[in-house]
């Protein structure tokens, strides 16, 4: 039995039951929190494709969330409302920017890759702050949101919850399948030993570039959904600290594992919420907790639930 | 099968390859020996494309591969091992070999079907592992193998690329007596199927395996010929072989 699949299945079943369970226990206000966690999870899973499976540590991933969010916001402002049309535009925009920045960034590796992705991310961030017509530094409140085939069902509450849920489920299944496919095998081989992969006959940089673009596109989708959820967009979502949060989520959850990014993202959102609700200086606990987890659970949260999982990665 | 013509390479003022020419024909094992720092590894790097030559050519069969990248040369049929073992440490032994097979079997731009379920690749990987004597290590992570086993795995990886030519950089290095003897048997067996350029310090191995021998000193081939001739060559003896050989 595939334990990772079972654990993931339980998490998703649990999520799916939430819109029914929360009103019963009078905690409907948590729906928003769950949507936030799912959006973070989508971005974290996509980042895990390049860091966990690809070994390329990017510190600019949140910029693609920003690109996706702003593309969507600008689309909405110009009267495009159909969510699948916005999705196509978002994928095109993030994909194109990732392709160009990826070609340049992948001429380097290791710390240099980290620095150059940070630099590109900051360039995108500052570009967003300079978009005066779209709120500049302050961001932009959206008065109209995306529709699904003309219906406003995906604009809030359960409709939006299920839409985000579906996006997360697809991301979770898709990224894992990709990581275990022929393509993913080459990507993982290049993470383990790029020279060996090259000597086997693989043009490593091309595979890495494709992974980079795929990951950016998925992050772009989480940006689109973030706009739909928050009804607001500002450059802060693209800041490098957000990229850092994503890295924390996947390291905490367990790099390159079936459920690591998912667990890590939920863990972070839930910890923040709970710790900050009873302790103003919650980061005082949060920091040491992260240190302990990284020190004593090398494979992250995923490894605590599924001790053999690293073989598969 | 493999021909090197007037190859030159310098690192700054240090000339590590000086006008090296040699050729290895089908069915031959050509050994290159020489003292530490003679430029043997640098030579293999230039043949496999890891380093670019300053001048000269590398021909594989009729094809000039001198300006191809590492992966293109691998696809053209150059298989190699490294002096310092180079495998995929987190992959299982079998997946190491299957990954090498995959490079030569269909497109790797397949994004959905699980690669580990491809029976054709796994079966062929298993056959190659049996040939090198690692059949009982299939599911172990490569990082857990002993040094001797890693050397065998690297040869299995090279074989999986269905090479037209094998470049082996000191395959015996660090092996014990029995391991060396087993590896000599294996290489003797492979020699029938693959022409080999063998860099090796172990003289027993060299004299058992090589049909031809070149002595490289300070980047220059100072003697080349049948092992028995080179053995008697006074220059070669002085430079490297010593009196014990
Ligand atoms: N990248 C490099 N930059 C500068 N010098 C180098 C580089 N690589 C190798 N050298 C030098 O080139 C010379 C040849 O090195 P090489 O590794 O080819 O020797 P070798 O014959 O394989 O030696 P060994 O028997 O120790 O493996 C050495 O003096 C080495 O220090
Ligand atoms: Mg060497």
List the helices and strands and how they pair.
The complex is a heterodimer of chains A (313) and B (245).
Chain A: H1 3-24, H2 30-53, H3 61-77, H4 83-105, H5 111-129, E1 140-141, H6 157-180, H7 182-192, H8 194-200, H9 204-230, E2 232-233, H10 240-253, H11 260-278, H12 283-296, H13 300-305
Antiparallel strand pairs in A: 1-2
Chain B: E1 2-11, E2 14-24, E3 29-33, H1 40-48, E4 55-60, E5 63-64, H2 70-76, E6 78-80, H3 93-102, H4 119-132, H5 147-160, E7 165-169, H6 177-190, E8 196-199, H7 203-209, E9 212-217, E10 220-225, H8 227-232, H9 234-241
Parallel strand pairs in B: 3-8, 3-9, 6-7, 7-8
Antiparallel strand pairs in B: 1-2, 1-4, 4-5, 9-10
The structure holds adenosine-5'-triphosphate and magnesium ion.
Residues 11, 14, 16, 34, 36-42, 83 of chain B line the site of adenosine-5'-triphosphate (ATP).
What structural class do helix, strand and pairing data of chain A support? mainly alpha
Bound molecules: adenosine-5'-triphosphate, magnesium ion
Flag low-confidence runs of chain A.
Answer: 309-313
Number of individual domains of chain B: 2
How much of the sequence lies in strands of chain A comes to under 5%
Number of helices of chain A: 13
Succession of helices and strands of chain A: HHHHHEHHHHEHHHH
């Amino acid at each position: 039995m595939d334990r990772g699949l079972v654990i993931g299945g339980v998490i998703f079943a649990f999520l799916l039951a939430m819109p029914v369970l929360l009103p019963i226990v009078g905690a409907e206000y948590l729906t928003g929190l769950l949507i936030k966690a799912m959006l973070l999870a989508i971005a974290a899973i996509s980042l895990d494709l390049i860091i966990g499976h690809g070994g390329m540590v990017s510190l600019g991933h949140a910029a693609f969330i920003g690109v996706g969010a702003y593309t969507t916001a600008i689309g909405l402002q110009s009267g495009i409302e159909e969510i699948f049309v916005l999705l196509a535009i978002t994928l095109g925009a993030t994909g194109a920017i990732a392709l160009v920045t990826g070609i340049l960034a992948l001429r380097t590796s290791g710390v240099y890759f980290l620095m150059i992705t940070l630099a590109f991310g900051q360039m995108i961030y500052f570009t967003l702050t300079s978009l005066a017509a779209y709120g500049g530094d302050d961001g932009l409140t959206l008065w109209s949101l995306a529709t699904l085939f003309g219906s406003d069902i995906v604009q809030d509450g359960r409709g939006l919850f299920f839409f985000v849920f579906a996006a997360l489920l697809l991301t979770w299944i898709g990224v894992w399948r990709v990581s275990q496919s022929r393509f993913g095998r080459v990507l993982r081989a290049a993470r383990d030993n790029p020279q060996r992969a090259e000597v086997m006959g693989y043009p490593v940089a091309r595979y890495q570039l494709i992974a980079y673009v795929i990951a950016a596109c998925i992050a772009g989708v989480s940006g689109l959904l973030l706009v739909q959820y928050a009804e607001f967009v500002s450059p802060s979502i693209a800041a490098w600290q957000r990229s850092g949060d994503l890295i924390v989520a996947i390291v905490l959850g367990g790099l390159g594992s079936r459920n690591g990014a998912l667990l890590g993202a939920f863990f972070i959102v839930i910890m923040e919420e709970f710790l900050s609700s009873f302790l103003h200086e919650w980061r005082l606990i949060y920091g040491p907790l992260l240190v302990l987890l990284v020190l004593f659970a090398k494979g992250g949260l995923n490894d605590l639930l599924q001790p053999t999982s690293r073989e598969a990665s | 099968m493999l021909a090197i013509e007037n190859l030159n390479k310098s690192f700054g003022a240090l000339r590590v390859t000086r006008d090296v020419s040699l050729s290895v024909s089908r069915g031959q094992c050509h050994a290159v020996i020489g003292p530490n720092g003679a430029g043997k590894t640098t030579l293999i790097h230039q043949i496999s494309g890891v380093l670019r030559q300053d001048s000269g050519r590398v021909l594989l069969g009729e094809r000039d591969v001198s300006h191809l990248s590492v992966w293109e040369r691998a696809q053209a049929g150059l298989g190699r091992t490294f002096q310092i073992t180079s495998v995929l440490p987190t992959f299982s032994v079998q997946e190491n070999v299957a990954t090498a097979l995959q490079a030569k079997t269909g497109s790797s731009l397949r994004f959905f079907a699980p690669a580990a379920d491809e029976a054709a690749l796994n079966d062929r990987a298993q056959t190659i592992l049996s040939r090198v004597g690692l059949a009982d290590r299939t599911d172990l992570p490569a990082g857990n193998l002993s040094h001797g086993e890693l050397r065998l795995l690297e040869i299995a990886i090279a074989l999986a690329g269905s090479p037209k030519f094998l470049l082996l950089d000191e395959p015996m290095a660090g092996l014990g007596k029995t391991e060396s003897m087993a590896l000599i048997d294996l290489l003797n067996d492979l020699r029938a199927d693959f022409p080999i350029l063998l860099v090796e310090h172990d003289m027993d191995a060299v004299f058992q395996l090589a049909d031809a021998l070149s002595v490289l000193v300070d980047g220059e081939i100072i003697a080349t010929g049948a092992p028995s001739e080179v053995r008697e060559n006074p220059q070669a003896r002085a430079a490297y072989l010593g009196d014990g050989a």
